[in-house]
Design brief:
alpha/beta; 42% helix; flat
């Protein structure tokens, strides 16, 4: 597996345009996952951490915290 990008679409400053601009500078094989609610980022990070080369996050600090909790 390549890399994943975890996106909170409701975070301040996050829009479809911003996601595409970020995605454009990441590796071509990056898979984008959007969160829908609390705990989603933790679950996504936990699920993909064993096989992902990298986990990128586009969101606010709450989602970053969830991702860190998912991989530790």
């Amino acid at each position: 597996m390549g890399s994943i990008l975890i996106v909170n679409p409701k975070a301040s400053g996050v829009s479809a345009e911003v996601v595409e601009r970020v995605r454009a500078v990441l590796p071509a094989d990056v898979e984008v996952y959007e969160t829908a609610g609390q705990g989603d980022a933790t679950a996504l990070a936990r699920e993909h951490e064993p096989t992902a080369h990298a986990i990128y996050v586009l969101s606010g600090d709450g989602t970053y915290n969830e991702v860190v909790n998912g991989i530790t």
